[in-house]
Amino acid sequence: MSTPLIRLDRVRKEFGRHVLAVEDMSLTINQGDFISFLGPSGCGKSTALKMIAGLLPVTAGTIQIAPPEEKVEQDLGFVFQEPTLMPWGTVFDNVWLPLRLAGLSRRAARERVRAALVEVGLSKFEKSYPRELSGGMKMRVSIARAMVTRPRILLMDEPFAALDEMTRSKLNNDVIRLAHEHRLTVIFVTHSVFEAVYLSNRIAVMAARPGRVVADLTVNAPWPRGEDYRVSPEFSTEAARVSQVLKGTLHGDDIDH
Amino acid sequence: MATTSTIDDGDSGAAAPVNTAALARARRQRILAWVLPITTLAAAIAFWEFWVWYKQVPHFLVPAPSRIWATLMVDGPSLMRSAWFTVRLTFWSLFLAIVGGVLLGALFALSRPLEMRLFPFAVILQVTPIVAIAPLILIYVHNTFAALLVCAWLVAFFPILSNTVVGLRSTDHNLRDLFTLYRATPLQRLRLLLAPSALPYFMAALKIAGGLALIGAVVAEFVAGATGANTGLASRIIESSFRNEIPRMFAALVLVSLLGVAIFLMTSLASKLVLGKWHESEIKRES
């Protein structure tokens, strides 16, 4: 079960000479983990995620990702805080993009793009433009795009922070379902304790100035989860426990987060 | 929200009942958008005609529209030759402004140092009134058409350059990261990301540059005072003014205006065709 997939070894990130965004972060993420990076703004959780994705170079330390068994166009899906869709393209065009960049024609990619859209419940909207969709739907297009290359790893950078509560909990369930069905390893960045507890089986609590991991918690609840967990007393207990740990990491001036 | 229609997150089953009243209103709005300007224009022309007749304004001061029309008919062939000259001049300068502006803009967007080096020249050329530079250009460039072309090009070129630079630089950062993640080649990045991102800026510049190219062409010809068989509308205006042929001045002026309107309509249409489906500037709001 616990095959190491991603290994961070004393990863450090400095911006300029004075800002230490991530300080010596060491973490092993196993295959099938659903891990949340939880912490206040400025704790380097997004920076860590971008380094794992290879979008930011590390200042020091190493990040190793076990090579995939079967070759795919991109083994790593990334979902940004905003939907980040190309406004000039239809939903189809946007989901096609990763395959298109890998050289697949529209025709060759069609089946896979449609399959990815079915997964997120948007099969009827492939001809729509992003501006015609609601915030939650745009996010689902973004998820379909990340999934279209059939990655093992899904990185999500506070993807639902800007959405309303209803849409957010719906998307939470979608992500759990996708992660379960495709046996994804998910790293989910969030500043919401409830979201982290509901979604993940593991939580890396991070603190700011300098950004670092202060606790590596296991969420004591069976996974995958459903709405009944959200209203269960176990959920409240876990959330209270994680909140306590998080609170312990905050400096006096961070309490407002 | 400026979106035309937002589909709800939930299952969108039955479509909303068609609101016939709203549809009729939208239809009426569309028709009015054409009818109002055209009727107002026609009314203004009719009033002009009436006023000249009523006050007996001499035609060497203000000719009646009917007289301008008659002049257009009589001098038509020769005026058309001049108009064709101006059309060629305008469109060549616009074309060269697009080529030069986009190429240089792309270079600037690629290299900041290059931009810092060359930008002052672009600004100096832009802010110096074309009327002031034109005499020099006419001395240095012997072919009149080429000299006029340089003048018109100078005027039309700058908005394309600056907007292309801004457009290429304003690409969404996350989209750039996305292209990096999926290992896009530089060519893919240019074609699928940078060019579409810059397009709205470019189209806005095109609308401005189209008008400026015509202004440049006319002003340059005024300065050149070009005479002879191969001359544009501006020369005809000067020539008619020397001969006190006011109706012909107006006739040439009408042609210049029509050309300007045509360019405006063309660039607007191009913008609508290119951006209509996705960009806010070309999307009609539902009231």
What is the element layout, followed by pairings?
The complex is a heterodimer of chains A (257) and B (287).
Chain A: E1 4-15, E2 19-30, E3 34-38, H1 45-53, E4 60-65, E5 76-79, H2 91-101, H3 106-119, H4 135-147, E6 153-157, H5 165-181, E7 185-190, H6 193-199, E8 202-207, E9 212-218, H7 227-230, H8 233-249
Parallel strand pairs in A: 3-7, 3-8, 5-6, 6-7
Antiparallel strand pairs in A: 1-2, 1-4, 8-9
Chain B: H1 20-55, H2 65-74, H3 76-110, H4 112-127, H5 130-140, H6 144-169, H7 173-181, H8 186-224, H9 233-242, H10 246-275
Helix pairs in contact in B: 2-10, 3-4, 3-6, 3-8, 3-9, 3-10, 5-6, 5-8, 6-8, 8-9, 8-10, 9-10
Note the total helix count of chain B.
10
**Which class best fits the helix and strand makeup of chain A?**
alpha/beta
Number of domains of chain A: 2
CATH superfamily label of chain B: MetI-like
Strand content of chain A: 15-25%
Q: How much is the radius of gyration of chain B in Å?
A: 24 Å
Report the uncertain regions of chain A. Answer: none
Topology of chain B as a string of helices (H) and strands (E): HHHHHHHHHH
Structure explained in plain terms:
By secondary structure, chain A is of the alpha/beta class. Chain A folds into two domains: 4-68 and 152-254, 3-Layer(aba) Sandwich (Rossmann fold), CATH 3.40.50; 87-151. Chain A is built from eight helices and nine strands. Chain A has helices at 45-53, 91-101, 106-119, 135-147, 165-181, 193-199, 227-230, 233-249, and strands spanning 4-15, 19-30, 34-38, 60-65, 76-79, 153-157, 185-190, 202-207, 212-218. In chain A, the strands form two sheets. Chain A has a six-stranded mixed beta sheet, sandwiched between helices. In chain A, helix 2 (91-101) packs across helix 3 (106-119), helix 2 runs parallel beside helix 4 and helix 3 (106-119) crosses helix 4. The longest helix of chain A has 17 residues, at 165-181. The model of chain A has no long low-confidence stretch (mean pLDDT 90). Chain B has one domain (76-276): MetI-like (MetI-like fold). The radius of gyration of chain B is 24 Å and the shape is flat. Chain B is built from ten helices and no strands. With 287 residues, chain B is mostly helical. Classes of the chains: A alpha/beta (257), B mainly alpha (287). Chain A binds chain B through residues 50, 53-55, 73-74, 76, 78, 80-82, 84, 86-89, 97-98, 100-102, 124-125, 128-134, 136-137, 149, 167, 170, and chain B through 3-9, 12, 172, 174-175, 177-184, 188, 192-193, 196, 199, 277-280, 283.
